[in-house]
Specification:
Length: about 300
């Protein structure tokens, strides 16, 4: 697919690629684009034109992925954009699919068990995507902003070529399966028009997630890993909270319940703590917590 450039009329670009409408909305750009070029629209909305064009081309072209260029943008830009992407998933796309799916199931044969199973599969996908969004909002993105605030302007970052995987959630794999099941394995009597509407809505979200996961896991995550490696080894605010609970004798589940985070998140924090400090035992962590005034010696026992 041809690339989009800053001197192109944005209205013509969107007319040819309507799927860009929610993408440009995340930059605060609404329809009614007139004859303005992408550059003129970005100037009007105080948007970095290079970042805007890079995101647009990344979204439209699966083969286009300028990693080095994306790495050159401020992390706050990427976090802000992905935050708005998450909001689009949560408040627009998920309710849209859910509404179409509910109408589709209710208008079809009530004895069609495959439709009930499809509804359950979508429910699993929705729960996992919302869980990822919650983790982004409450833990990962704030952690990234905290790292940015600590990072000195002149310090070079180390970028890692291999991005971390998404082993716990598999959001992209789940929605891929959902689409394939509709196309390959649906059976029985059902409303075809409503079926098409559900498939189109699922495909739109699937494309969006697939393209933006490249930014999440091939750009943002490796940069953050580099900052954590090259930065000082002090614990984050959340890691200190976890450490306090650990040295008080709490189990991983109790730590999660007390801090309102998942068990997997607790385990991740514990791994980060031991990696940063080079200390693996509870007595060793207790010693560190006391000597660094994280907790009083009167509060715990060795």
């Amino acid at each position: 697919m041809p690339l989009i450039y800053s001197n192109m009329r944005m209205s013509e670009v969107v007319e040819e690629h309507p799927s860009l409408i929610p993408v440009i909305n995340r930059f605060g750009i609404r329809l009614g684009l007139g004859e303005n070029t992408a550059q003129e629209i970005c100037d009007k909305h105080d948007i970095n034109i290079d970042f805007f064009i890079t995101v647009i081309n990344t979204f439209l072209n699966e083969s286009y992925f300028p990693e080095k260029k994306l790495q050159g943008f401020h992390l706050e830009q990427i976090v802000d954009y992905l935050t708005k992407t998450n909001q689009y998933y949560q408040y627009s796309q998920l309710p849209n699919i859910e509404r179409h799916l509910r109408l589709f199931i209710s208008a079809s044969d009530p004895d069609n068990e495959t439709l009930t199973l499809i509804g359950k599969l979508f429910g699993t996908f929705k729960d996992r995507l919302l869980k990822r969004i919650e983790t982004d909002e409450n833990e990962w993105f704030p952690h990234i902003i905290e790292l940015c605030e600590k990072q000195t302007k002149d310090k070079a970052l180390t970028y890692y070529p291999t991005a971390p995987s998404d082993p716990e959630e598999h959001t992209e794999a789940l929605i891929t399966d959902l689409k394939h099941i509709f196309i390959k394995h649906i059976s029985g009597k059902y409303d075809e028009n409503l079926c098409y509407a559900v498939i189109f809505a699922i495909n739109t979200l699937h494309t969006d997630i697939k393209q933006h996961n490249r930014i999440r896991y091939r750009i943002l995550a490796p940069i953050v890993a580099g900052m954590e490696k090259d930065g000082n080894k002090s614990l984050s605010v959340r890691e200190i909270e976890v450490l306090k609970q650990i040295v008080k004798g709490c189990t991983n589940k109790e730590v999660g319940d007390h801090l309102c985070i998942s068990l997997n998140t607790v385990l991740t924090h514990r791994k980060n703590i031991t990696s940063k400090l080079g200390i693996k035992t509870i007595p060793g962590l207790t010693f560190y917590a006391i000597t660094n005034a994280i907790i009083s010696g009167d509060e715990i026992e060795f």
